[in-house]
Amino acid sequence: xxxxxxxxxTPVTLGPLTLPNRIVMAPLTRSRAGAGDAPxxxxxxxxxxRAGAGLIISxxxxxxxxxxxxxxxxxxxxxxxxxxxxxxTEAVHAKGGRxxxxxxxxxxxxxPSLQPDGALPVAPxxxxxxxxxxxxxxxxxxxxxxxxxxxxxxxxxxxxxxxAEAANRAGFDGVEIHAANGYLIDQFLRDRTNRRxxxxxxxxxxxxxxxxxxxxxxxxxxxxxxxxxxxxxxxxSNDIADSAPAQTFGHxxxxxxxxxxxxxxxxxxxxxxxxxxxxxxxxxxFMALRRGFRGLYMANNGYxxxxxxxxxxxxxxxxxxxxxxxxxxxxxxERLRRGAALNEPDAATFYGGxxxxxxxxxxxxxx
Length: 367
Description:
Blueprint: E1 12-14, E2 17-19, E3 23-25, H1 41-49, E4 55-62, H2 79-94, E5 99-104, E6 122-123, E7 132-135, E8 138-141, E9 146-147, H3 153-169, E10 174-178, H4 184-189, H5 204-207, H6 209-222, E11 227-231, H7 245-256, E12 263-267, E13 278-279, E14 282-283, H8 286-292, E15 296-300, H9 305-313, E16 319-322, H10 324-328, H11 332-338
Parallel strand pairs: 3-4, 3-16, 4-5, 5-10, 6-9, 10-11, 11-12, 12-15, 15-16
Antiparallel strand pairs: 1-2, 7-8, 13-14
């Protein structure tokens, strides 16, 4: 490869932004929102500590009360939530960082105790997922969801638009649409979870319709240049699957080109699991998606320094998203730059709790 091949520390242009490095803090659910599902000062401190990332993508934030699927996760629809997120964005910007909000509707991956008036979660079809919901009363089995009526779908698209507007008021630099890991947009896309026979089900053109309507709504607020999207074509997260993922996601990604998105964020393999996932006896070809997308390609899943540098050098990615390493290493960029050892994360403090395992991991200078 030529000597000019980029590495993790080469600046890159992302829409109107210039990122000083290609290290992205991936969205990480930490379940530490306060009253009214609003961020508070501790969340501002946490994100501010990690502002050395070229780009931070916020933890997934529900677009409405119905979109919530886990205890103590933040929303991005109320005035209180906007005020809380403004504390976060100001903390990141004060340290010279950049941050996008991730917009989230969990669909069927929820529980009545997390839903308004104890209602059932909603989904494209009434197909019960295997698994458990993380509620304020511990883990509880996921129920069979209620299938959305056709006339309800435009209202959910409007909720995405409202959340995008809320993110703008909160001072974010852009937004990422969460279309991965078995949540609502993914549930519409994949044929295990979408059994509809109307305009939103059946052939891939119909199954992609909801996601593309969401993208149209969000880019109507932010423009494509400040909007990204996350997909996970072969991840089985939250009991999701598709009979022909190459065709499904090839169609979806090609259609996304019409919106001029800033980036495509791809979970390569199984979320938090193996990178190599076979489809019909062959490894899934993520590079087909890279070739088919006109914006920047952000790779995610199991990357370390060596794997990330190789992917950039060989042209297999433009940006690399790191997840769990950012939990335990607020100064991850500097550690990677120096080749320094990384702190090990404490899994017992991943979800819920206080500052312990959240804002108390040491930076290099403090060790």
